[in-house]
Amino acid sequence: MQFSIDTHTHTISSGHAYSTLLENAQAAASKELALFCVTDHAPSMPGAPHFWHFANQRVLPRFLHGVGILRGIEANILNQQGEIDIAPRISSQLDWVIGSLHEPIFSPATRQLHTEALLNVIRSGRIHALGHLGNPNFDFDFEAVVSAAAEHDVLVEINNSSLCGSREGSQPRCEQIAAFAKEVGARITTGSDAHFAHDVGNFSHVSQLLKKVGFPLEQVVTHHPRCFLDFLQDRGQQPIEAFADL
Fold it and tell me: Which parts form a coiled-coil structure per UniProt (predicted)?
């Protein structure tokens, strides 16, 4: 399965990543991606940039090295109520918002509490995708959350980094999540979660997993740029004129 968009990448602005936006764009071009999303960590993460970093993304060109740039953020889910750490006036200016649970921000608790936090952030309408759900430190009710994601048109991310060591124990859980997403018609997105340019557009483990569970192409929004851009418009984003020909 081929993917033309990487929806989860970090730059040096995240504080624990090692490449610039220009270096990531060059890497994306070398992988022949059509688009990639800039998703640095939101301000609550230790080492993350100030909210001005996200408010000022309008200065970014829409193309670098021939690859389209989507302005985004990996927001932190803060609590059981599903609140995230970026103001609506800032996130409304962005193209793409991932919501993720991270240990430094949300201390791992019970399966029920994690489930409620994920359900509430889905229902809030403030995110486009749930990041790296396979993390075993945040167990949750797969059926309830994935079904809610399908109902509210929130994407489930299959995260390549989770499948190659960054969150040990994610592999079997990601398989179960993908299998259930397939069953209920939930759509997925594919992110490298690159913290170094070399990994931008690396979906080797994602591809193997989706093949293993027989995941249908039509439920993968990153298989074609128009599919992804149409998803954003369906979620209420304004069309991006620069990408009209993609």
Answer: none
Short-list 72, 90, 238, CA closest to 155: 72
Quick one: average pLDDT of 45-65? 97
Q: Which of 44, 45, 35 is nearest to 66 (CA)?
A: 35
Annotated binding site: 8, 10, 16, 41, 74, 102, 132, 193, 195
As given in the structure block, the two tokens for residue 74 are 């990996």
Q: In the structure, what pLDDT confidence band is assigned to residue 132 with cuts at 50, 70 and 90?
A: very high
Cα–Cα separations (whole angstroms), residue 179 to 101, 150, 151, 188, 223? 21, 13, 17, 11, 18
Q: Which of 183, 197, 171 is nearest to 36 (CA)?
A: 197
- Give the per-residue pLDDT at 165: 83
Q: What is the CA radius of gyration of the chain?
A: 16
**140 φ/ψ angles, rounded to the nearest 5 degrees:** -160, 170
The sign one gets for the Cα dihedral 126, 128, 130, 131 is negative
Residue that the structure tokens 């109520």 belong to: 81
Does the pTM exceed 0.85? yes
Distance of CA 170 to the CA centre of its chain: 16
- Do the Cβ atoms of 188 and 182 come closer than 8 Å? no
Element (H, E) at 156: strand 155-159
Q: Please, which residues have CB within 8 angstroms of residue 15's CB and are 6 or more apart in sequence?
A: 41, 45, 46, 47, 48, 49
Pairing of strands 5-9, 63-64: unpaired
* Phi/psi-derived region of residue 102, left when phi > 0, alpha when psi is between -120 and 50, beta in every other case: beta
Which residues are annotated as part of the binding site for Zn(2+)?
A: 8, 10, 16, 41, 74, 102, 132, 193, 195
